[in-house]
Amino acid sequence: MSDILFISDLHLDESEPDIYDHFKYFLENIASSANTLYILGDLFEAWVGDDDDDDFYGKCQQDLKKLSAITPIYFIHGNRDFLIGQQFSEKTGITILEDTQLIEYFNSSAVITHGDLLCTDDIDYQKMRQLFRSQPWQQEMLSKSLLERRQIAKAYRMQSTQNNSNKSYNIMDVNPQAVAETLTKHNSSTLIHGHTHRPDRHEIQVNNKACERIVLSDWETQPSYLVWNKDGISVKNIGI
Ligand SMILES: [Mn+2]
Questions:
Q1: Would 175 disulfide with which of 45, 69, 120, 219, CB 3.0-4.6 Å?
Q2: CA-CA distance, 150 to 47, in Å (whole number)?
């Protein structure tokens, strides 16, 4: 079986053409020959609804559609693109997964998630998350005009940047207990996530078992992807 690939936190945005170039290169030259691609959230800097008629987002969806015709793509919502829904899925051929998912390959397993659910010390964020993920809030948001939604999303992003500048480094990282519980619940020893923009591989002990937590890079710092194949898991940078 060929490679299973993982990416997250591209934060695709029209104002970052360099990241889009890496994205396109990755889809056409790397993911096209993979077995499966998993996108673990924050693919887009913002997503205000599948009905967004923005040209840049339209272009990105076409690129994804092209790839999904040859390589299956799975997506987990991030905190920036949680409004991605059924229409996007149909347009791109991408399958949307639950927020936390167990996957099995090469006689082994891994738990995949965006990562924000693991940041349980950030209580204010978790409260906001609960609201944003609720049906009533989403229905009300999606009933507004695109212009209004874009303004609201921008205001939330600014507020979040401001809030985060007052939070400690630890509060915004994953909580070890949440990590342990997630691995225990799914009976796996590997956790793959993004969100924190702190790419690393952490060897940890959970119930006296050697486990690993792998954090994907954000593409502003380093466009890279994770490869899982019969030889194990490795990180690869995208050089173009
Ligand atoms: Mn995120």
A1: 120
A2: 9
Predicted pLDDT of residue 4: 98
List the beta bridge partners of residue 212: 190, 203
CATH of the domain at 152: 3.60.21.10
Q: What are the C-alpha distances in Å from 189 to residues 76, 101, 126?
A: 20, 13, 25
Expressed in angstroms and rounded, the spacing between residue 197 Cα and the centre of ligand 1 is: 8
Mean of per-residue pLDDT scores for the chain: 96
Residue with tokens 């940078």: 237
Q: What's the 100 CA to ligand 1 centre distance in angstroms?
A: 14
Q: How many domains does the chain have?
A: 1
State the pTM of this model: 0.97
Distance CA 105, CA 161 (A): 38
DSSP state string for 109-154: EEEEE-SGGG-TT-HHHHHHHHHHTSHHHHHHHHHS-HHHHHHHHH
Span from the CA of 126 to the centroid of ligand 1 (angstroms)? 12
28: containing domain: 4-237
